[in-house]
Each structure stands twice: as structure tokens, then as C-alpha cells.
Amino acid sequence: VALLGCASYEGVLLxxxxxxxxxxxxxxxxEFFDAGSADVLQERLNLSSPLASKSAFYVLIEAGGxxxxxxxxxxxxxxxxxxxxxHVEDGTMATEPSKVKNLWASRxxxxxxxxxxxxxxxxxxxxxxxGREPRLGGA
Length: 139
Prior knowledge:
It comes from Alexandrium catenella. By secondary structure, the protein is of the alpha+beta class.
């Protein structure tokens, strides 16, 4: 599991395309959230970001197949190339179960953090990726 910081929604989309291209069949999760969600986690649950720097968007990637050593190498190579090419501002990777759980908490506990400010109505919908940026406040 990896948590990555991206400067823009366009960067999130690029990362999604590249993850599908490089990780293919072992890509099992690709989820993102924005800086506002990360702030709420810190303010309401005292859950600090595992990343050293703050980003506009965060991406959580999980990958795994039948060959753990091969999969870990494939993910590491992908992450290194995304960092080197400047598509990712910061990132961390975890394989140890307790650290994996902590990375997932960055994504999964957002709703819990939001309930501290009142009711939360949550809907699980799928939307096309194209045209989302204006609605997400992108530049």
C-alpha cells in the first residue's frame, strides 16, 4: 500500500493512468482525497499525515498478486519513476500490516472525522473521470 501526494487533480488522473499501465492486474485499489479531508482528519481525530509535506490531493494505491516479491518490486519501480518524473510530490509505502492499516486510516476515517461537525450523508456513486476537475476546485 502506498500513500502519495499530488499537486493537482490532473496529477491524480495521470497517476491513475500510469498505475493502470504499470501495475495492471495487480492494482487492487486506487482512491484519492483532497487536502481539506486530510485537514479534517488532523483537526477532529488528531490523525497526522504520514507524509512530510502537504499536498492538494492524496492517492492511496494498493496492489498485490500471487508473487509478493515480484509485486513489491513492481510497485517500488512504479513509485520511484513517478517521484523522479515529478508526478508525485511526496509518498510512503507500507507492507507491514500495522503500517498498512495506518495508511488506509488516512482514507477510511474521513467520514468519521466529518461527523464531528454534524450529520454526514454518504453515497457511493461512480462518475466518469472526465469533467471532474471543475467540480473539485482544480485550476
